[in-house]
Design brief:
By secondary structure, the protein is of the alpha/beta class. The chain has one domain: 3-Layer(aba) Sandwich (Rossmann fold), CATH 3.40.50.1820. The chain has 9 helices and 8 strands. Strands 1-2-4-3-5-6-7-8 form an 8-stranded mixed beta sheet. The longest helix is centred in the middle third of the chain and has 17 residues. The protein is globular and about 55 Å long.
Length: 256
């Protein structure tokens, strides 16, 4: 049902690659779906999305799952610049103009980058648990100690404390400092949304990506007269933990 091409180089200097999933149905159209993996900008890989990409291709999308540079060797805005490089490659070297539409799904930090591209190119977008606040979040959590595994490093057992420690770790690791001005540049509110089109933001009610900051971000988009669809699901699941359950919902939304 799906043809898969792995490790297609889209950025020669950094040797960054994308996987491509081609639908083989005769009636499949030329819809492209960009699928951005998460991992807090310091881990994660496009291969984590394989099953979801196959299902998306079976639904008729030509799916691209790019990798991007990871911290700490590549700090902000490296990953954001890489996703721009990918879009430019798509148009310049993969005949991107042939697609009737280009759409996106971004998981966790991949959702933040999908927002960045959505504002620049107007791609209809679905985000799964995209973190949107970094400067305000850090200001509100001065006592939190950063760690990618606070349960091991600090002996924490409370999931909220573990999540807070992880949130601070991946933020500081990607930005490379705690400088407030640098953090503000990473804030989703700092992106350019002149071309923002359809946007569905999915989030759990109590998870790594706090609803409070998400609602503040949506309020800012509303102030700019942008429409946003929001879906809150009960519980603590983050991004990939509910991805399978909400993939069809996400694809149907993008297919409208």
């Amino acid at each position: 049902m799906v043809k898969i091409y792995n490790e297609i180089v889209y950025e020669q200097n950094k040797q960054l690659t994308t996987d491509l999933y081609l639908p083989t149905k005769k009636k499949s159209n030329s819809k492209a779906l960009l699928f951005w993996h998460g991992g807090g900008w310091f881990r994660g890989d496009k291969s984590n999305l394989k099953e979801l990409c196959v299902q998306s291709a079976e639904a008729g999308f030509t799916v691209f799952a790019p990798n991007y540079s990871l911290a700490p060797s590549a700090i902000f805005p490296a990953a954001h610049q890489d996703c721009l490089s990918f879009v430019n490659w798509l148009f310049d070297h993969h005949d991107g103009q042939k697609f009737t539409s280009i759409k996106q799904i971004g998981a966790s930090s991949g959702g933040s980058m999908a927002l960045f591209l959505a504002g620049k190119f107007g791609f209809p977008t679905v985000t799964w648990s995209a973190p949107v606040s970094f400067s305000s979040w850090l200001k509100d959590h001065p006592q939190v100690k950063p760690s990618p595994q606070a349960n091991i490093d600090f002996g924490l057992t409370d999931i909220k404390q573990i999540n807070d420690s992880f949130y601070k770790y991946f933020t500081l690791t990607y930005v490379g400092s705690s400088n407030e001005q640098a953090l503000r540049k990473l804030d989703a509110q700092s992106y350019d949304y002149q071309k923002l089109d359809r946007l569905l933001m999915i989030n759990s009610t109590d998870e790594l990506a706090p609803v409070k900051y998400l609602l503040d971000f949506i309020a800012e988009l509303a102030r700019q007269n942008h429409a946003v669809d929001l879906k809150l699901i009960a519980g603590k699941r983050h991004a990939m933990a509910y991805a399978q359950a909400l993939l069809t919902t996400s694809l149907n939304y993008l297919d409208k």
